[in-house]
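Subject: Interface between my chains keeps coming out wrong

I've been trying for a while to get a sensible model of this assembly. When I model each chain on its own everything looks fine, but I need the whole thing in one frame so I can look at the contacts. Pasting all components below, labels as-is. Any help appreciated, I'm running out of ideas.
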Amino acid sequence: MQLNKVGIGVIAFFGLGGLALAIAPFLLPIPTEVAIVLAPLGVIWALVALGLGLYARHSQRKADHQDWVFQQGLRGTATVLDAGSSAKVNEMPLMSLRLELEVPGSAKREVKRREIMPVFAAARMQPGLRLPVYVNPGDADDFILVW
Amino acid sequence: MPDADSAYGELAGSRGLELLSSCSTDPLTPLLVEAEGVPLQPALRGALGDGVEGIVGQLAYKRNKTFRFHVAYTQVPAAAEFAPRVFCIRRGRSTRDDEFYGFEARHSKLWTESTALNERFAVSTSPFQDPVWLRRLFSPSFVDWLRTAEPADFSFELAYGAVLGSVEQDDPGAAGLAALCDATAHVATRIREECEG
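Reply #2:
Try treating it as a single job with all components included. I did that and got this:
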């Protein structure tokens, strides 16, 4: 997953709004009852922004690692043995794939993978489909599937 | 739309295409996914160009508003193993206006190596697309053709061997539909040539 402009706006809204709500009651002359409501609400908003920011950072690190595997990995082939989906994320199926990996220098082996895919790609994940893979030279379980 | 019917009838007559009352669609490309199974209506089947068989038809679907395209569909199955996805979409095109998310799956990246191409199109692929094959596909002559190709609002999608050319006009007329068929056939032929090496 990657953060887009809408996500940046959401994080900014909750982060800045949360800080304002949390701090304003102590700076402005407002009734104590109102301050007791606004300050915790601001903290909650700020925590939401923090959580989204951490998730975005985790996603970016994962993306950087995938780029490294793509650049430095061993190219092989994955044959789809089985595919199915029981959930959707942002209208896109979360596909559960059973794959047979063929990588130069290694024996064929079966692996499982879950990928969020657009509908047009998910519809093509049928047994027998062959797709490129790039495998981390130092960790055979670390690979990216090119779909 | 009566105008669309007459344009399709005229194209069928001039090119010897089979007129279909409608043609069902599968979610094979992003545009067809947006249409959510709406059939092509009217539609024609036959030769889009030299050696390129396919279907051309009107695709109209509603999200918040009605989006109307004319599309030409053909297949180059061999492309799947070289480039699962290549989308060459006219800049400024809109296919939906009712969904916004803060996070999205990292399933594509823009290909920006050709400045000339990027003036007219947004080209996107898998983030892990082999760049060498893509450079060969978008040869200087192909890029030059795409820069000036008619129809002016032409776009194409390649997804797992399915090639879908499209235009956004409400009523392109028989000449516009013929240009769509020619452009889609040209793209499909170029992709096939590159697959065959």
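Reply #3:
Confirming on my end. Chain A has three helices and six strands.
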